[in-house]
Design a protein that fits this description.
It comes from Stichopus japonicus (Sea cucumber). With 346 residues, the protein is α+β, with helices and mostly antiparallel strands. The protein has ten helices and 13 strands. The chain binds 2-acetamido-2-deoxy-beta-D-glucopyranose (2 copies).
């Protein structure tokens, strides 16, 4: 039986311990779901207006950071404990030392009842790196990457992304013009921006690990490409997004840290006007059309489109989350199961 299947059965809903742990969290989970999905496609009224997140907490695509986070933490801790217990008595799942340490650190950070003293542990590579949900220890932490071609799996995936650029952009153009021409706003969402100003629109193909089937059906070539890169993409896991992301001129997404350092965020540049900057860990980076920009979004980062609406055009990228290249297949399976998207289904 593959590690993946064992973990899956471990967390299946007839697993008694898990059900007990989870039932206390169902209310919290509902909050997450409501928070994230109240604004669904049904609300779209074909007037060309994207659904707008109403919750003040849902400022970013990573809604798991919202007020229901405590209940989500409880469910995640339950899964970590089950995994630790299972691996202690059954050698089919062998947890790496860094995984065990990271789980323990997670308990310490999120559970004041058994808080341990972290003060002497140098758990962050930099104080500008501060993942809001899960920090995996002992992963090398570079905040940006040129190509990652030394990893053959990355090399393959980046080649597929770049060679699909033309058809992905063509599909994006169709979706975007349907939206701006008020023909079809389905699937488009406007993310609220805390204080930076401007407008930021997203169209999810995969949202917190869940496939958005209706959206995917509208861009078959892009969906086919996603299928080809899914061995490296973060799938079925709350950390995984595949999203068209559009910044209008004059938009500033203010500085923040993403959910985890276990993923590398990849942006395939689709339409890149001048005066657009992604600042990661204090360094200014720039997108290029047809190329991938890779960065660790657990570092502080902000995005700016400083062009004028009169003379510029929107900055558009396809964002896709990939596993950190140093994680083993087994570690990815464990993370996928602990942070599985079914946390949002309960
Ligand atoms: C370990 O787990 C696997 C998969 O659940 C199971 O088939 C096997 O019997 C278990 N071994 C022990 C020693 O419990
Ligand atoms: C940390 O990573 C290094 C290099 O990959 C490895 O040799 C070491 O055993 C790891 N330590 C832990 C605690 O996982």
């Amino acid at each position: 039986m593959a590690v993946h299947d064992i973990l899956h059965s471990l967390f299946s809903l007839d697993h008694v311990t898990f059900v007990l742990g989870v039932s206390s969290c169902i209310l919290g989970m509902l909050l997450v779901v409501v928070c994230k999905y109240t604004v669904s496609r049904e609300n779209s009224d074909h007037t060309g207006k994207a659904a707008v997140y109403s919750s003040a907490q849902c400022k970013n695509a990573d809604c798991v950071r919202c007020s229901a986070k405590e209940s989500l933490n409880a469910a995640i801790q339950e899964r970590m404990k089950s995994t630790l217990e299972f691996s202690a008595r059954n050698s089919t799942i062998k947890l790496s030392d860094r995984m065990i340490k990271s789980f323990k650190h997670y308990f310490a950070m999120t559970n004041s009842a058994d808080r341990i003293d972290n003060s002497n542990q140098n758990v962050r590579a930099s104080n500008l790196q501060n993942p809001s949900i899960f920090y995996m220890q002992n992963l090398s932490s570079d905040y940006c990457f040129e190509e990652l071609t030394e990893y053959s799996e990355y090399d393959k995936v980046l080649t597929i992304l770049k060679s699909s650029f033309e058809e992905v952009r063509e599909e994006f153009d169709g979706l975007w013009s349907d939206f701006v021409d008020e023909i079809d706003a389905d699937g488009w969402q406007e993310n609220s921006l805390s204080d930076g100003g401007g407008k930021w629109f997203t169209f999810h193909l995969i949202n917190q690990g869940r496939r958005q089937t209706l959206n995917m059906n509208r861009c078959p070539a892009t969906s086919h490409m996603i299928k080809k890169v899914e061995t490296l993409a973060v799938n079925n896991c709350i950390f995984g997004f595949v999203t068209f992301s559009v910044l209008m001129p004059g938009t500033h997404i203010t500085s923040h840290c993403g959910a985890t350092n276990t993923r590398i965020r990849c942006h395939l540049g689709l339409h890149i006007p001048e005066d657009c900057t992604l600042t990661v860990n204090g360094q200014d980076l720039h997108w290029t059309e047809g190329k991938c920009l890779l960065f660790d979004d657990s570092f502080q980062h902000e995005a700016r489109h400083s062009g004028l609406s009169s003379s510029s055009y929107p900055r558009s990228v396809l964002m896709i989350d990939l596993w950190h290249p140093e994680l083993s297949r087994e570690e990815r399976d464990i993370l996928q199961n602990v942070f599985h998207s079914d946390l949002l289904n309960l």
